Each structure stands twice: as C-alpha cells, then as structure tokens.
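Q: Start with the shorter request: fold the first protein.
A: Done. Sequence, then structure:
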Amino acid sequence: MNNSAAMISINNLRKFFGTNEILKGINLDVKNGEVLVIIGPSGSGKSTLLRCIKGLERPDSGTIYIEGQKLDERNKNYRVLQQEIGMVFQHFNLFPHMTALQNVIEGPITVKKMPRDKAIEKGLNLLKKVGLLDKKDEYPSRLSGGQKQRVAIARALAMQPKIMLFDEPTSALDPELVQEVLNVMKELAGEGMTMIVVTHEMGFAKEVADKVVFMDDGMILEEGSPNVIFSDPKHIRTRNFLGKIILT
C-alpha cells in the first residue's frame, strides 16, 4: 500500500429512504492500494454506502470524490468514474443465458467497445486468474455458488477498475465454498488493488485489511487497524458486536 492522496474521499454523506435516515454523515478516506473492511450488524448502512460509492444510489447530501473528481451525475466524467469502480454483489447477478466467458466479456465489448478477439483473450486470462478456465463454456446453472462468485469477480475485473467493492461476497455461499472466493480476493489485495469489502468473515478482515471500520445505525463508530479493532476496540458497541462473533 502506498500513502498517496486518497483514492476515495467521502465527506458528510447522508442517505434517506423515505423518512428513514440510512447513512448519517459518513466521513471516510481510502488510500490508493488500501484494503478497507467494513463490519457491523445487518441494517447498519454498509451495503447502502457501497451502492452510493458505485453510483447505484444517489446520496441526499454530502460528497464522494474518486481520485479528486466528484462523483456527480452532472460531472461530464461521471460514467468514466463509474466504470473505474467494480462491484461484486452477494447474489452474483450473472446473466443466466450466457456462458462464464460470455458473462466476463459482455461489459468490455458493449461498454468499452473492446474488439471481440481482444475481449475474449482478456476474458480467458481472467477466468484462468480465478481458477475457472475449464468452466469457460458452462452456464451459471451448471456452476456452484463459489464458482459463480469467482466468475462475477472476473467480470468486474474485465472492466479494468481502479477500485473493487465487495458487498458480502461470501454470505450466500455454502461454508465449504467461502474460502475459494476469499483466496481470489486475497490475491487481488496482494496485487495492490484498492478494495472496500463489506463482510462477516472476520478472519479475512484480520489477515488482509489495512483498515477496519465498524458501522452501526448509519454511522461509523470506530475505525483502525485490524489489530486495534479486534484486540482493543474502544467503542462499547464494537466490543458487544465482536463479543457475539467467533473470531477465527
């Protein structure tokens, strides 16, 4: 991880759904190459925060900057900024009528106008990277949950993002399939990808995160190194939350 200026800078971000305030003034910086893991109970606003960073939800107030550029629909570079942020969801969201390879190359061809032969070459390399080259012609219905999620990661990487967001990427998987997805994520982190990961996998957070953020009720209550958060949390809410989780 290098210590250059923030890759992502979030200032006083607020988001309402109706009268329900989901994000209550979030302030957060993520450096280039940093792995940030967000933990906290369900309903604390973690997924909504990721969706705001990706541009899938519009904040009601506050700002998000990506490499110093404001993420705003009025910014002429808005679509370019969005494309620089890859996102992997809990439930894969693969196209069921496309093979693994077709899922991976669809974005580069349709959005980035990449020549098909180049997209296929890149797609095959990415499937190899996630350990699924032998599944390139399989449809999602023939893949396990872990394999689908690894295809989803390859699909996000095919857009050549500078930032990867992971929204509880293993929570829908059978326990024995979780590690194969986490291993791909660890490899990405080792290569220096800037990552924000919402997860309940505390072992992954302890091993891979540069910084851990604890969210509850739409607020960041505590942030620090994994060592500090897991060994000596300051906020009573963090202590209570971690006390209910078996740290592996």
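Q: Next, the second protein, separately.
A: Sequence, then structure:
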Amino acid sequence: MRGHPRQQSIGVDMVFPMTNTVEIPDALLPEDGRFGSGPSKIRRAQIESLESEWKTLLGTSHRQQPVRQVVASIRTGLAELFSLPEGYEVALGNGGASAFWSIACASLIEHKAAFGVYGSFSRKFAQEAAGAPFIDETVVFESDPGTYRIPDFREDVDAYCWAHNETSTGVAAPIMRVAGSAAQGALTIIDGTSAAGALGIDITQADVYYFSPQKAFGADGGLWFALLSPAAIERAARIEAEAKRPGSKRWIPSFLSLSTALSNSRKEQTLNTPSVSNLALMSQQIAWMNDNGGMQWTQARCSESAAKLYSWAERSSFASPFVKDEQARSNSVVTIDIDDRHSADQIIAALRENGIVDTAGYRKLGRNQLRVGVFPSVEPSDVEKLTQCIDYVVDRL
C-alpha cells in the first residue's frame, strides 16, 4: 500500500466497523484518499516545512519576531493572492469564521442587515444577527438548498450578507454589489470560507470577505481572516466609538472588536494567543499557491477536479449532480446525489474501509448524497481515481 493504509490498520474501525464487503484494488486507489470539505487535506510539504521550523516557531512567543514574520507573510501573501486594491487590509483573529459572525454583528452591522440564505451556513450568520439585541430585525431572502439567493435592495439596511460558497450544499453564488447599495453606504459582507483560494472573486465587489483556513488553505480551523475595504474599516471604528458613549446599548468586548483585531494585525499578531502551527501551515500554503500562479492557477486546478466529478455523475446510471444550474455548481465543494437503488452511507463506508475518507454529504441536509472537497491541495488525478473507486464499490455492493 502507498500512503493510504486501509482503515483497520489505523484503528478507525473502532468507530466505523468493517463490513468486509468490498476491497478496492490498490491500482485503483488514489494516492491520497482525503476529500474532506473541511477540515481538508493538508499537503506533506506543509508538514515538512513545519518540521523544519519547529525549533524557531513552536513553543515560542507569538509576539516575537519569528512568529510575527509568519503572520506578515500570510498578510502579504493574501494581498497578492487576492490582488487587494489600495486601502484594503488583511485582519486576522482567533475563533474561526463562526466567531466572525459575532464580530460582524458587534462591529459592522449598524442597524439592520439583509441576508441571502440557501443552506446551513448562510442561515447561521442570519440567525446570529437575529439574536443580537442591538440590531433591528433582520431581512432574509431565502431559496431552497441547491440554489442561491442574493438579497434584494432595501432602503432600510446598512449591510448585505451572503456566502460565496454554501459548504453544506455545494452552491456557488456570484459576488457583486447589490444595485444601489454603494450609494446608500451599505457594506457587502461575504462569507468566503469554502471559496477563498479556490473560486475567483473581484474583491472590489465586497467590503468584507472573511474565511477560515481549514478549506482551500489546507490548515486547521480556529482562526479567521478578513479582507477589509476602507469603508468597512471606517464603519467598525465609528460603531465601536459610538458603543463607548454613555447610554449605548451596544456591547463590544475586545474579542469581538474588529478595530482591535485590525490594530493587532498591523503589528503582525493576534489579540490572544493563536495556534502557531496553524499559522505556519497557512503561510506555506499561500506561498505554494502564489508560486504556482496565484488565483488563476488555483481556480483552474479546482475547476478541473470539479469537472471530473460533474461529468462522471452526468454519465453515471446511479449518480447525478445535486445542483441543477450549471452556473451555480461549486468548483470547491461538489455534491452528488445517489439514486434510491443504492445507499450513499454504504458507499461512503466502503470507501472509508479502503482509506478514502470524508465523502459524506452534509448531515443536516439529509440526502442520499456524496460531498467531495476539491480544494487546491487535492490532485485532479486523485479525483479521477475517486470516481473509478465509487463505480467499483457500487458494482459490488
């Protein structure tokens, strides 16, 4: 076997019992069987880079130069990857993208926000805002899973929010300012968690583009990054200044202060102690992306992998793409429906027994479905082999 031991050899069968139904020939197996939609595959080169620097980074102060240099490389690397215009800045902090929902509520949404909701994660941000006692009732524009919905213009909102890629359903939505929103001074706030680094974007169409590193950036969770326009930076500073005035009902703790996070980011550090190894993993990944051609290269690579899955599903007698609108199909998270003659759970279990992991559909969606992460770290040739393995398993179950 290559670097993908079958599950019984690494103890995973304690959680996922062996069924002894299908053993896929080694010749069919991908070189790397990790296809998670997050956490996603971490490349060997990232681990080797971390091992070579462990004495200067791990177990040292995050406020000293070696770690601050890593943070600086991330910020400059992201600015290069996204071609940030003058005035845009990169901020970071602890807590992951879900923590940023609270930061946006505390520091960016002034009175009222409109949300596009078309899956679990786009819904969670809207729910976070709905629960904030100092924000007016939110406006929700919703569509069914497998489609997307951009908010309509509303005169009474100051922020428009939606997800570039809905991780739960494999839907990619366009990023463009809502007509009329710029004139009213509203911010465009985009969740880029499973899109950033994989799907292209004109960053000038957003004021805030936030994400965590456990998807395309091949690192672990627990951090958030945000690309901020001058308007977003000014909005956060103004809201936070007003919150300090007597009688204000808005409470902004330091952990949820975007201005505090940005101030620390400019010093190449975070407010509180981060995972230094995570920063190192992300720094190496960003350098790899930029060295290979930047966003144009990562986009093409993810598109190639996704196309292999979609075209396979369209040819298949038992599978079909979940997202019917081809223009809305994600090139980072691919969702494939399995017809009722076959159990997706059985397919997923058989794949896992052969070292091919994390192909399950999003649990709350409740469909007979596979979900495959095709982020830049995933080799397109491994995606091709994955389709062959699925066919092999289905023929024998």
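Q: Describe the second briefly.
A: Residues 35 and 245 are 50 Å apart (CA to CA). Residues 294-315 form the longest helix (22 residues).
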